[in-house]
Amino acid sequence: MISGLYTAASAMVAQEQQQDVIANNLANVNTTGFKKDTALYVPFPTVFLNRINDDKTMVPGGMVDNVYPIGEMGRGVQLRVDGVVPELTEEGSYVETSNNLDMAIKGNGMFEVMTPDGIRYTRNGNFSIDSSGQLVNQTGYPVMGQAGRIMLDSNNVHVDESGRVFDVSSGKPQEIDTLRIGLFTKEDKLRKQGDSLFYKLDGLPLQEDDRVENVQIKQGYLESSNVNVVREMVDMISAYRAYEASSKAVQSQDSTLDKAVNNVGSVSL
């Protein structure tokens, strides 16, 4: 019965975490370049559970916990250590802005920006020019090119599909630099840092590629989030129903345990 309590309680915790993930997705439905998160869970392995926080026993060399087994449990779920992952490969829609400094990537590519923590990656191409003439993202981090930071005199620029940046203010295009584009796959294990930035868990850089057949830069466009509001709402209702069912299971287990403790073995006079 106690194992049943743990099983149902683990399901309640899992669905509560799922609700948090869905709420974050819905809150960022209008965030440029946002990639929705998905919570990944794994079943508990069949383990021999023990009580914790019991008294300690003095042994030679120190103290040891008194752990008492409460039984085997092979059911229930838990959030993986890296269990909240972004759906990177599902692209959002492309919204035309007609702003020369707005850019979107079609394909599995990401812009590279320099941050105090090193190179980070983003799908948010809402760029601007700072006071020193650098092309920067919304947070003010420099957008990186093959030659380093991209310096511009004005927003009178043209960016072709391969990411080459041209100054067209004089009427004759002059190539300035080429955007650094990192290619990603599911195996790269990108994680969110905040401010629409991503990093790799292993700390290694993404493979770079500016070939049009792999990625295409769309100047004057921004990629919207890939959150489907209807789908998220359906998932939220499903998570709530699952939480409710698990809650009733906990109540049922508690009621059964109460009867076992107070009624079983009682003597009627």
In DSSP terms, counting alpha (H) and pi (I) runs of 4 or more, how many helices?
2
Overall structural class, as computed from helix and strand content, comes to: alpha+beta
Portion of residues within helices: 10-25%
Bin the strand percentage: 25-35%
Largest sheet, in brief, is: 6 strands, antiparallel
**Domain unit count:** 2
What is the molecular shape?
elongated
What's the total count of β strands? Answer: 23
**End-to-end Cα distance:** 29 Å
In angstroms, what is the radius of gyration? 27 Å
Run of helices and strands? HEEEEEEEEEEEEEEEEEEEEEEEH
Brief synopsis:
The chain is an alpha+beta fold and about 270 residues long. Helix content is about 20%, strand content about 35%.
Q: Can you walk me through this structure?
A:
With 269 residues, the chain is an alpha+beta fold. It has two domains: 2-87 and 228-255, no CATH class; 94-223, no CATH class. 22% of the residues lie in helices and 35% in strands. The protein has two helices and 23 strands. The chain has helices at residues 2-27, 229-262, and strands spanning 37-43, 47-50, 56-59, 62-65, 69-73, 77-86, 94-96, 103-106, 109-115, 118-122, 128-129, 135-136, 144-145, 148-149, 157-159, 164-167, 174-178, 181-183, 190-194, 197-200, 207-208, 216-219, 221-223. Strands 19-20-10-9-18-21 form a six-stranded antiparallel sheet, with no helix packed on it. A three-stranded antiparallel sheet has the order 15-16-17, with no helix packed on it. Helix 1 packs antiparallel against helix 2. It is elongated. The two termini are 29 Å apart.
